[in-house]
Amino acid sequence: MAAALPGPVSPLFGIGLYTDGREQVPFEIGWAEFGRDVRWAHRVLDTWGIGEADHVLISTPNFEGPWASPLVRALRDRRTVHSNSEPYSWDVGRSATFLRLLRFKAFIAMSGETAAGLLRQPECAEALAALEPIWARPEALGPLRAAGLEPAVFAMLGPALALECPRRAGAHVDPGEWQLSPGPDGVTLTTVGDRRHVVRELLVAPAGRLEQAPCPCGLPGPRVTPA
């Protein structure tokens, strides 16, 4: 759309908003960094074997586009089919209907509200057991594990997105863009890539754990496990 419009193309892919303590912090995203984020998303998807003609269910509202858009673009690039639902209790019915009627490979960004609603329905709980992965937000991990499932972490850490690989030993961020470090109150995030928005030791996982050992999946960098 931007290419079709007359006049100069915006230098920004978009603007997001994350929370730092009680403060809402806007952050700009340039086109070059968006492209790098798409390439990283491809690498993470490769670890799960998600590819052409697979069908995934994505549960991210529009305002989470600054985190989810690189992942969605990577899915489209590899001709992966995707359906959408909202991560709120009032839209659990849509997720449930999709799971009953269609065959999915993965669920992306499952919320705690969605997990609670789906697990109350035996048919949906059975469908969830066949998904690989269930990328779940931190608040959904406990209920899913209690139901005997093996979710993987999907976490928005300040302006970064952390995704767990099949090893399920902590969530990866692109180490070419972000540095995860241990801090006195948890795991912090620092910008290391050439990005329009820069953070320095931003606390992103209070009481979280950091794994520094190389991951057997082959992705570089440390991994974070939210508390």
Could you describe the 3D structure shown?
The protein is an alpha/beta fold and 227 residues long. The protein has a domain at 23-166: Rossmann fold (3-Layer(aba) Sandwich), CATH 3.40.50.980. 29% of the residues lie in helices and 30% in strands. It contains 6 helices and 14 strands. The protein has helices spanning 31-48, 65-77, 92-101, 112-119, 122-128, 138-146; strands spanning 12-20, 23-30, 55-58, 81-84, 106-110, 134-136, 152-157, 160-164, 171-172, 178-183, 186-191, 202-206, 209-211, 223-225. Helix 1 (31-48) packs across helix 2, helix 3 crosses helix 4 and helix 4 packs parallel to helix 6. The longest helix has 18 residues, at 31-48.
Compact overview of the structure:
With 227 residues, this protein is an alpha/beta fold. Helix content is 29%, strand content 30%. β1 (12-20) and β2 (23-30) form a beta hairpin.
CATH class of the domain at 23-166: Alpha Beta
Estimate what percentage of residues fall within beta strands. Answer: 25-35%
As residue ranges, the low-confidence spans are: none
Rg calc = 17 Å
Write the H/E string, N to C.
Answer: EEHEHEHEHHEHEEEEEEEE
Counting DSSP H or I runs of 4 or more residues, the number of helices is: 6
Adjacency order of strands in the biggest sheet: 4-3-5-6-7-8-9-14-13
CATH topology of the domain at 23-166: Rossmann fold
Task: Give the class from helix and strand content and strand pairing.
Answer: alpha/beta
Shape: globular
Helical amount = 25-40%
Head-to-tail CA distance between termini: 41 Å
